[in-house]
Amino acid sequence: MEKLRTAVSQIAATPDERLRELPIFYRFFVPILSFSSYLYRISLNLHQFLYKSTLFRLHRLPVPVISVGNLTWGGNGKTPMVEFIARFLDDLGIPPLILSRGYAGGDEAKMLRRHLLHTSAKVGVGSNRSATAAALFERYGYMNPECSSYYQALFSPQIPGPRLKTSMIGAVILDDGFQHCSLLKDVEVVMINGLSPWGNNYLIPRGPLREPLKALCRAQIVFIHHADLVSYTELNAIVSAVHKISPSIPTFFSRFTPLFLFDVKNPLSKLPLSMVTDMVILCVSAIGCPDAFIHVIKMIGPLHADRLDFSDHHSINLNDIHLIRKGLAILQNRFSIKPVVLITEKDYDRNPTILKEVNDFQILVVCSSLQIIPFKDQTEEDFKMNLTKMLLYKCKTRA
User: Fold this and answer.
1) What 3-state class would DSSP assign to 42?
2) What is the reported pLDDT for 359?
3) Distance between CA atoms of 328 and 355, rounded to whole angstroms?
4) What is the DSSP letter of 106?
5) Which pLDDT value is given to residue 105?
6) Residue 382: pLDDT above 60?
7) Residue 288 and residue 295: Cα distance in Å, rounded?
8) Are residues 109 and 203 in the same domain?
9) Sign of the alpha-carbon torsion through 246, 252, 257, 262
């Protein structure tokens, strides 16, 4: 199954003119994937028609809903952006509720809970997000977005003094919400992977697109993630493609910034990044954009960094442990230094137990956060101001 996932991912990243470069085994699947993409497009159009025609019921939640989603699978910085917005709302005194599907073992939800432990944010997990939200509204209550205290909280960045303190839910953040049609959303934030914005321009499974590019017309804010790994020319090309679809949409840029490390044997530890300087590293990851992870590690300055990539959301098993051990043995023989394994937080939250099978080697987790990069006069403060204005407008139109 892992080989098949790897094949599909490679095909999705390869334009038509370069298909001949792929192994014959990979090319065998192209016609099958193309037909599957055709069926997916029909299903997608039917799904959207049923909601637009109100044949399927739309649910409106009693508080503003901010959706964070993407057009392509994996590696877009979607979940870190959810955390960024949750912290911003918490700072305003508007406790957020994050709604997650809990896909593939709920690694993203686990990471969000750990990161937001000391904030007012709550995380609800379940495929029926309307039902999950209803249960948490009943438990905690919710703020009335039409009341004066809500407006005061939204204006609080400009108003000095203490923030409103409440345990009631003030806003909902949909993690992976762009294709979620059953909930009415007030703000759509779409994340784009700057390293591979559209892949081969085909819909899944032939390509990485979950919707055609024209779907960007539904978005209110667009982020180009991994912008630090992309040239100025490439960034401008992506921005131009976005603005052809939605000319006036605010476009921002973001990147991952590594903060510290912790040892899997002691998750409460907080180790400096410099700890891996001049060391031999094996980067093991099952994420949407492993290239970005490797780049972050190499920037820290190890003696050598090798990699072992699995498909996004893959759960490490005993066969994978054998591959990891084999890679470590090769590195140890080559450099005569005991190598260290580095993994992402998502991989840790997905596989906290199985990784102990490699307990004779040190396994460190890289903790990162999303950072908004100033670009063309668009800054972090501009994004917060845009988001606040949109929430204020939606609150007024709800009244």
Assistant:
1) helix
2) 80
3) 14
4) G
5) 58
6) yes
7) 14
8) yes
9) negative
The distance of Cα 286 from the centroid of its chain, to the nearest Å, equals 13
108 lies in some domain = yes
Count CB neighbours of 323 within 10 A. 13
Residues 213 and 132 in one domain: yes
pLDDT per residue over 235-275, tens digit each? 999 999 999 999 999 999 999 999 999 999 888 889 999 99
Which residue reads 């460190």 in tokens?
Answer: 364
Longest pairwise C-alpha distance within the chain: 69
d(CA 85, CA 45): 30
Q: Could you tell me if 29 and 108 are in contact, meaning their C-beta atoms sit under 8 angstroms apart?
A: no
pLDDT at 187 over 80: yes
- Give the 3-state secondary structure of residue 349: helix
- At residue 267, the 3 state secondary structure works out as strand
Angle value at C-alpha 148, between 142 and 152, nearest 5 degrees: 95
- Taking the whole predicted model, whether its pTM rises above 0.85 is answered as yes
Please determine, for residue 162, whether its predicted confidence score (pLDDT) is greater than 70.
Answer: no
Lowest average pLDDT, out of 49-53, 206-210, 283-287, 384-388, goes to 49-53
What does the alpha-carbon distance between residue 67 and residue 177 come to, in Å, rounded to a whole number?
Answer: 5
Same domain for 339 and 308 = yes
Q: Are residues 77 and 197 located together in one domain of the fold?
A: yes
Is the pLDDT score of 395 beyond 80?
no
Q: Which long-range contacts (CB under 8 A, 24 or more apart) does 43-49 make?
A: 44/203, 44/211, 47/181, 48/181
Q: Does 245 share its domain with 390? A: yes
Token pair, residue 1, equals 């199954």
Number of domains in the chain: 3
pLDDT at 55 exceeding the cut of 90 = no
- Are residues 350 and 229 both part of a single domain? no
354-372: average pLDDT? 89
User: Tokens in use for 199?
Assistant: 């892949």
Q: Which amino acid is at 298?
A: K
